[in-house]
Model the fold of this input.
Amino acid sequence: MAQHFSSKNLLLSNQPLVVGVPASLQALQDFAAADEEEQAAQCDVVELRLDLLRDQVQDLESALAALCRPLLLTARHPAEGGAGDLPAAERWRLVEPLLSRAAIWDVELRSLEEMREGLAAARKAGVAVIGSFHDFDRTPAAEILEGAAGLAEAAGLDAVKVATHLQEAEDLARLISFAGRKRRVRVCAMGMGALGPVSRLALAKCGS
Done:
């Protein structure tokens, strides 16, 4: 099935995108059962965490057929929060059959070399690629954050996503500085931990 939405237009939006992540197949089916207006009221993009749904991939078809929101595919690396300890080849096996339905694919920056085949397929299909970086323990130094953005730019990706644990106000200030810089790639930055909720509001105002 052709994509319903333009990948490029999504990432060029001047407004922050609200991403809904169904926690289960049943949650996805319930969301898809709503009409288009109700779906639009809940989120701008639906993210499928295929590492979490890996045992139910064959049951996704009917729910996806009724989806009226752009689709973001993710099969998370185990070192960055992924379930099932899946190697790169297995994660790509989950993504590939659904690529033609997707507007965006989120792949960890650490996996770019292993996912070269997938990156080429995504470009051919017109699917935007987000390179992501997660640190669940801390917010790394500015040099590391800038290195993540530089790697995404060098790989020709469309956006970079950085999600870090915020331990203190200085960590949030570092993410705000990172999100506010002008780059070729669009930036999605977010914090985790006690300061996480407020960070997402603040970062959205800073261009995330």
